Amino acid sequence: MSQPLRQFELASRLPFSRKCSAGELNEIAQRAADALGLRTAVISPGTARCGLEMERRFRICWWSGHSEQFRARLHDIKKEVYQAVRLADCQTGFEQAWREMNVITSSASWRKHLRLMTEGRCAEADWFRLAFRIAGQAWSRAARWNAVMPSSCDSPITPILELVEAGAVPVGCHGDSLVVFELNCNGEDECRFGPTLPQLQAVSRTDVVFLAASFRRQPLLKAWRGAFEDRGWNVYCERVPENEAIEPQLGQRIRESLAVVGLAGQKDPAPGLPWWVYQELDYALECRKPTGLISDVRGIVADLRNVVEIGPTSFQGSVTNDHPVWEWLARIPRE
Q1: Chain-wide mean pLDDT for the chain?
Q2: Using alpha carbons only, what angle is made at residue 223 by residues 136 and 293, rounded to the nearest 5 degrees?
Q3: Which has more confidence, 153 or 227?
Q4: Tell me: the pLDDT tens digits for 248-264?
Q5: In this structure, CATH architecture of domain 205-330
Q6: Residue 137 CB-density burial (10 A; 0-12 exposed, 13-18 middle, 19+ buried)
Q7: Residue 288 region by backbone torsions, left for phi larger than 0, else alpha for psi between -120 and 50, else beta
């Protein structure tokens, strides 16, 4: 097991910033497997296409309610941290650590590092954007652990950070083995690991829109939720109970919705969509839902190519009646 990284250490470390030997990478991967209660780890080298498909298979199945040990164990760790928050009555410090880490993972240094990683590497750009989103969540999990757990308490998140720092990303479990993807342009192009994607039965309520948006952008979210409700729509956008895994609950709501609309308020297209918004829109596409994005930045959804870029946020405290989203929704069949 590994000692937790303190906040200042987390702030100084970046994904894909350290090279290590194959032997060292295998050792880190095994430590990650041990920390998660898994038997072993498998390093799977492959092309960007392979990595994107592999990660997506595991993720879509988890959102569809299928069991998956890696993500289930991460949820257990989250519950352990939340229980510690309640017992120690340290909600304020916990939330502050979360906010501070969000500032770091969306900072200019992270964005610059991502640009350097993707410069001149068009074939790998989508993979790096995805990996940086996953890294941001891992860094956030580590910060929340640090905020509430004793420094003497071994951190199950630290070896995951060390893997991502070394350019390898845990993507799921195959049996009782942790699958870790490593980008290698000469590696496999076909996905060797990952479950078969499920056949999803989506039963739509014709009066429901799922609004995919960051809770950090409350004024934007509030304005758009009100605009939909004023026009007779029921809106799924509230938090779901966190005593159960969040993703299967969100997946169920997406399957029940007529359409899914994403909100993106950031101005820099380089990192792409926020991780949760990306996952929600991607799952909606898998469910064959009409899926659109409201954003002031064109091209921010380039790695989800079937998402319709509807128009700008138009946010000056209200949402206009002539916004193209209303016409887009009106064209959706409601049988």
Answers
A1: 89
A2: 55
A3: 227
A4: 999 999 999 999 999 98
A5: 3-Layer(aba) Sandwich (3.40)
A6: middle
A7: left
pLDDT at 6 over 70: no
Handedness of CA 18, 77, 133, 186 (dihedral sign): positive
pLDDT of residue 188: 76
Asked whether the predicted pLDDT for residue 89 surpasses 60, the reply is yes
Question: For the chain, what percent of residues have pLDDT higher than 90?
Answer: 62
DSSP letter string, 179-202: EEEEE-TTSBSS--SSPPPP----
- Give per-residue pLDDT as tens, 160-212: 999 999 999 999 999 999 999 999 988 777 777 778 887 777 677 889 999 99
Task: At 41, give phi and psi (nearest 5°).
Answer: -125, 145
The amino acid at residue 237 is C
Cα 54 to chain centroid, rounded: 15
For residue 158, give the H/E element and its range.
helix 158-165
Q: Distance from CA of residue 247 to its chain's centroid? A: 10
Where exactly does CATH 3.40.50.10140 map onto the chain? Answer: 205-330
Residue type, 194: G
> Which of 299, 245, 241, 271 is CA-nearest to residue 128?
271
* CA 66/CA 28 separation, integer angstroms: 27
